[in-house]
């Protein structure tokens, strides 16, 4: 297993516990973790926290982390999701020790289930799920024993074997552990271990018609694999007594794994419920699991979020047992910081307005002269060098960079005002061309040839520097601009349904954008900085289509500065 950036082990309660285990020789000072997603959807940013946690802990202690597909529910799991999970983990920069399936252990789990029946610690219940649920009782109210709880072990064993053989229909029987229906912990009230489900499984085919529940498969799979520290999100804290009970009552040949829980990741303006994400996809509210607005790793990848930024954010927020909601602006600050170091700078005009330099020279054939300027690819990395940009008397600038009647404190181009074209010349507008509706469609200006490179020999200054693209050399592009997918900080807080707060204006698609020629060489998925505009990712499937990753303004840093932090 490996990750791109080795890190000094952090100080948190999980790593401190592992250090104590190692000092005491627990597990022979061996550390093994696992990442166990259910393959019933695509991984999202919350899973990234668990990935970085499990793989990071193993790496810090020279251990190993396995990928285990927790595939105990054949009705919702698909090979498509299995493949996507493997790919997303690799993209984040991690390599599992081994990749396994919970279904690989179905035979051993079944044999252990028979053992518990023989020991009088499990029984077959003929009641339906609704009845069993009603008998569970509530907090402060003990449950009611099943009338089949004292069924002889031999009878339960016979019924269990007939369940496996496919003799009974779905839902007609189940296998339950015999623990304590009066336990304060609801998970200990004779939990279901197996249910009958005649369904084809993506990994085992039709070999089984009874399937283990998560709680029965989880700890036992850990034990089979040799997991030492089973790291789960905090909602499984209440499951831990059951996790331990099963392991205590089985004839294990190796060490018993230890479950520890940490707070999961929640982001503002974001939903990580698989059910709701799936509804967004199925109802056509987004373009798919990899829509750039989605909080899935596939969506973030398409949008241009660097894997390194995701890892660094997860490491920075640390590991605690306190659930909290992190500001998405903080997350985006890590994305912006990473891209500032790595992204190439490019010129792109999203809403073009033609700018014509009326005094631009022509050559001997009467053709406009073409000049070239050497422009820095990335001021943060000198090794990225320079690129050559063509410049002519026919240019495109942003519509918002010209105002015929400027508002107060407007420093960009207007009539009789001089501005700098980035890296090129000072220009001054002197007239406009309008269409029949009175809209400005072209600005006429003159340039000062003495200001080549963007500085005036006489030392005069301008208050604005604008980007541009040479019109004869410009390439056409489409650009997708994104706002928050959900309008409220905590989606669903007011109504109880997150999708009520879906933003109908979360994407704006711009066509007819004009970009510099160098962008034709950008690789699929590459992120570049459109100067003065933001960071944009090249779509992996559509050439010359760009997704805005984040803007240039660091909203998180600004908010922290305002608060004096």
From TrEMBL:
Keyword Cytoplasm listed: yes
Ranges for the Glutamyl/glutaminyl-tRNA synthetase class Ib anti-codon binding domain? Answer: 343-448
Organism the protein comes from:
Luteococcus japonicus
Q: What is this protein called?
A: Glutamine--tRNA ligase
Could you cite one Gene Ontology molecular function of this protein?
ATP binding
Pfam families reported in the protein's UniProt record: tRNA-synt_1c, tRNA-synt_1c_C, tRNA-synt_1c_C2
| Start and end residues of each Glutamyl/glutaminyl-tRNA synthetase class Ib catalytic domain | 31-340
Q: Could you say which protein family the record assigns here?
A: Belongs to the class-I aminoacyl-tRNA synthetase family.
- Per the UniProt entry, what are the Gene Ontology biological process annotations, in alphabetical order? glutaminyl-tRNA aminoacylation
The UniProt catalytic activity note for this protein reads: tRNA(Gln) + L-glutamine + ATP = L-glutaminyl-tRNA(Gln) + AMP + diphosphate
Q: What class of enzyme is it?
A: ligase
Q: Which PROSITE patterns match?
A: AA_TRNA_LIGASE_I
Q: Which residues form the tRNA synthetases class I (E and Q) anti-codon binding domain?
A: 465-539
